[in-house]
Amino acid sequence: MEHQTNDGSCTGTSATTVVASRRLTRDGAGALAMPALLVTSMLFAGCGDVSIESPGDPNAPPVTGSSSSGGSSSGGSSGGGTTTCSCPAGATEVTVGTETHCSIAGTITTDMTLNNACPVQIADKVTIGVDAGSDPNSPVATADPAVLTIQPGTVLYGIGTDSLLIISRGSRLIADGGDPANGPGDPIIFTSAQDLGYADELGLANTRAPFSGLAQDDPYTQEWGGIIINGRAPNNRGTDVPGEGGTGTYGGNTPADDSGVLRFVQVKYAGEFVDATTQLNGIAFQSVGSGTVVDYVQVHNNADDGIEFFGGAVNVKHVVITGSADDSLDFVQGYNGNIQFGVVVQNPNFADSDSCIEDDTQSLDNAGDPDAMPFSDPKLVNITCVGASTFNAQATTGEGLHPRAGTAGHYANIVVANFNGETCLEVDDQQTFDRIAAGLLKADSVVLDCDPAAPVKDGTEFLASGANNDANFTNSLSGVIPVVNGGNEAAVTPFDPTTLGSFFDAVTFIGGVNSAGAFDPVNGNWLQGWTFGMEIVPDTCPTSSVVTTTTVNSETVCEIGGTLTTDLTLPFGPRYRLADSLRVGVDCGSDSNNPAATCDAAVLTIAPGVTIEARTTVGNDAPILVVNRGSRIVANGTRNAPITFTAEGVDMTDATALTTQIGLWGGVIINGRAPNNRGTDVPGEGGTGTYGGNEPTDNSGVLRYVRIMFGGNFVDASTQINGLSLQAVGNGTLIENVQVHNNADDGIELFGGTVNLRNIVITGSADDSIDWVQGYTGNIQTALVVQNPNFADSDSCIEADTQSLDNAGDPDAMPFSAGIVSNVTCVGASHFVATATTGEGLHPRAGTAGSFNNIVVIDFLGETCLEVDDSQTTDRINANLLDANSMLLDCGAVPNKDATDLLNSGTNNNGAFTNSLQVPARFGANSAVPYVNGANEQAVPALDPTTLGAFFQPLQYVGAVNSDATDFTEGWTVWLDVYLP
Fold first, then answer.
1. How many whole angstroms separate alpha carbon 643 and alpha carbon 214?
2. What is the C-alpha separation between 550 and 399, in angstroms, rounded?
3. Is the pTM for the entire model greater than 0.85?
4. What separation in angstroms does the CA of 523 have from each of 21, 500, 517?
5. How far is CA 460 from the centre of its chain?
6. Pairing between strand 278-279 and 273-275?
């Protein structure tokens, strides 16, 4: 196995080094980051000058890194544990690949401590202790209890759905990741072999890369069993109840029973399906008593419930449930504990997700008795429930709150948002209404924001049982994952939970998280620094020589400008203003192996959801963002939290502004070391830096889910700035899901280079939308171009040159431009205004080579759908270096000019096509932007894009979007839904 050293070389490494490097670290904001080795080996392709391989997944995880190594920054606490990998007695030392792991299996009857230097393999069903029975004062004869202690920072993984950790009655689990008085702990992580990248080495069928994005985007689940803790506290089923799925026996009459400590613990990707009616939860607390400490616990992407409480009296604080495929918090069999400070976030990847909170006395699904004593009677305080329809409007999951089957309880200070597929609140069963009538089931300061047509079902009496409840609330939750209270939540009078008992902290707010500030167990962002997939939301500017903190109208603004020579991360939260041009790094020259003496490389990392507002200036003083050779930008947004570059003062929610504003600032320029046909040190236009080299795989970073809006400042009469200028950028750079909107020059221009583009949206460019020149030889798949009739000078959808004859270029310069394109839809301005006199749809010229495939072009009536210019371009067609397949043109009487040879160069081309493009169904009748294939497009045989090269995905259709289900623009783009009269 290899890893990358700080000087960029690759070296062999020992098993101990690998194990240590796999441990989780913290990034600069205190958030958990993937281990450097895992990021490098699983997300990056190669070593040395690290490149990033696109998996083609539109929800792929963020990639972070430093300028020296390409891995995540280190600095995570070891929690005081040993640094030597040694397995305790009772564990087996095993080799996984070249690493040493400690494997535990079977029944463990002696105390064991697991240290954090070795990954711990849960090989099968692991049971701690032999059941001691229901009475601590009279243990059964066969009792053999044990204590399993796990040090902070330890990572444990299951190797399949049979891998379980069961704590028997009388035994204890001490999984304590730290003291919250000292800040966020070093979490103990229970996860799967697949998550850690061990599946191949263990011969498992299901292999995958690790995920490190936002919780609601993570598609993985059910990769191991889960954790079951059996206690002796009361329940309403008996003192010796068999746990479902053979998970031990639970029950007794000891409410204060102590099963150990769970503090700063993550449980990820669990949930065994035992049979059709039995599934395992992330954590099952089976009659666990109040002597057990449970604080700062997250269950992520469990295939059944996140946490289920089978009776018992255990109390919980600071609980996070993300991505449960069934209920998130489920109470049954007479649970009588307390919970304060909770966050539940559903995942739209799991269509069967059910309730945020389901609460039964005994489940009627299993023929239970809703009048069994004791009733379930939880006290649930300060919880925020975020439904899946927050992230996908079509998500059809369960209820937010679902008290049923005879439960009692008290719900207080709870915010429920966006369970639109069902309802925010449903109360079921006569016995539950009996509890309300008897004053045993109450709600105070519970606010609901779901589909206004049905915010509750049969919940009127429940909401009337207390004060300050609101079924028609409008939430103002904030954050990349919206869980932090806003102004509307702050305006709600909170219930005082200290009236319910000494367990509860006094609060002055509703909901689970009141502040986006520093870590604080009560009033601050207690999620910070220990959770997985939960974006941190700071409220202060990062420290850097290029960042200045100022105040505008009492709001903190982080002003950016200058030359960045050290790595900088812009976290989500503050307001950012590009006050002056920002140049990332000092140019390192054309050769990565022999950098210029003045080289000073840096990495600019921008968190999901960040918006950077550029100062609006006309002329050569307009700010631009330049990434110089040898430096990188990591702008890795998500569908739900795109990164936006815009102009200050423009309301991005205003349809008129979105339609008319243009040219208010510069744009984004990336300079690389890939080949072009102008040289290895080419000056960029408008003082945008130097580019060129001979490194096709050069890596300039990541642009994913990025919007660049209202740019294109005119520097002078002959020089304009493109929305995104890719100047000799290499194919180690990852660019996908990028929109350029209303740019006064080209949307994206490619000056040579080899960079590949996927899922590109160009709307409202006043010149060309996609323009290549100077020997560009990359690939482009799935691009949507829509012209804006407000900009009468708009030119081509795609203009393709080898060298531009407009600037006395040489159309025979080598290498020829030879971009390969598939799955593009071009909608011309004359679709909206019949008299619009814009340019051509496709315009190969000036000696370009390449291949145009699966393309739909409509309504470039002012010019033509396709024009081929210059004898050298015809030479490329005749030499079979430029061709077209499944190209469909609908531009009226003049569908093409001088393009017969190109249309005859391949198959299924149609210069007289009649388009049937549709408006996406989600936009309704008022949208005038059709780009979804209709029957005519779907009837045309598509060229198989995979025949064009390994980059291309097997999209068996023409155009960019074949159906509403394949609309890659949904959820992160702007303007496409604006009605243009």
1. 14
2. 44
3. no
4. 34, 19, 9
5. 37
6. antiparallel
